TrEMBL record:
Record protein name field: Outer membrane efflux protein
Pfam families reported for this sequence: OEP
PANTHER family: BLR4935 PROTEIN, OUTER MEMBRANE CATION EFFLUX PROTEIN
Gene3D superfamilies named in the record: Outer membrane efflux proteins (OEP)
Lineage summary: Bacteria, Pseudomonadati, Verrucomicrobiota, Pedosphaerae, Pedosphaerales
Amino acid sequence: MNRWFVIIAVVVVGLAGCVRFQPHPISPSETAAKLESRSLNDTGFKAFLEKNLQKKFADWPAANWDFETLTLAALYYHPSLDVARAQWDLARGGEVTAAERPNPTLSAVPGYDFSATSPANPWIPAVSFDLPIETMGKRRYRKTQAAQLSESARLNIATAAWQVRINLRSALIDYTTSRQREGWLQRQLEIQERVIKLLQQRLEAGALASSELTLVRIAAQKIRLDLLTTQTSRADARARVAEAIGIPVSQLEGMDFSYDPGARLPAASELVTEAIRRQALQGRADVLAILAEYESSQSALQLQIAKQYPDVHLGPGYQFDQADNKFSFAITAELPILNQNQGPIAEAEAKRLEVAARFMALQSKVIAEIDRSLAVYRTTSAQIGGLDALAAEQKRQSQSVEAQVNVGVADQLDLANARLDLATSELVQLDTRIKLYQALGAVEDALQRPIDSIKPGLIEQSPRRQAMKENKP
């Protein structure tokens, strides 16, 4: 009787430690409302920003937002990082699973002897255990495989964070340059309309053919269309900035933000040294993630090779047979006769080769990205130098014509045309500078540096995510 009590007590204690299911239903209306309410004015985000920037904001919300603070906002709000963090949690759960040892099993086999006669007890209860013992280090290989997959998932958070940074920078460049381009086009249109007015006076005086005025009016109409396109692009870029951060575009109303790469743009020779190039090929987050995945495939192959050797099952048993206590002890092992796990081994070997091929392809892609982006940046930098010189020359020409107007050598039409040429050259200069900013960003993306705004541990955890886990609003 005492034996049965002990067995039942062990089972009850084991069941008491089981996890209970807690439902967490998703309400589309509630989640939509939460997404719509996200704002840069949020006090939780303010605390997050102050902690990571190591400074206090006396005025909140902030009046001006630069690339660094907006990047922190994207790391705080963007849903793709929540997805990447959840995938890491899933991988860490796999580590727990891999470390678990197989449970023993208990079998109760009640028997009845129909031929038993009184006073003999016809019941013949029996109990047997099955204690599995893994061999050849299978558990160690499982744990190593799961740990490497978890590390790969953790590094994928950094890759997701960098992609968020890419999208934000691209949207900010487009927004900033669209706004600047809109101002230059407005100025160009004003000058062009001044030219049309002067030419109209000459046409009325009979000193100009109508066809010449028509060409100028067509040019003015083209500027108006360019201005309208630029205004549309600015609105689209503003919406993409909000999307890159992870907030509704309405929350950006009244906020001033722009992209400024700095007063000094580095020379191409300063951007990529041999050490920096090597670091990108060996230390980019996506490179390290696939390396971890490769190590996981190695452990997976080791596990399948170890599975060629059978596990051992120990089976102690007890039977109470008509006042006789009978004990037994069984040793069970699978006989690797019909197969030696060759199929799974072949699959694991093929998986390792596939991951190795993807790693080589990624490194080849990184090399191409570095070379291409650096070539574009170098060429665009040279173009900027030439355009700066041209703009300076046209500015001197405009000033010269203005001086001639003051002494009566040139007229207002000459001055308007000179200013129009200057505005056109400055617009071309702006367009080329946009390409230079984009080329610089492409170099940073190829190298995945600098990441000064992403501090250690920041991309892996966030107060908002912790609040979600604790079911806080």
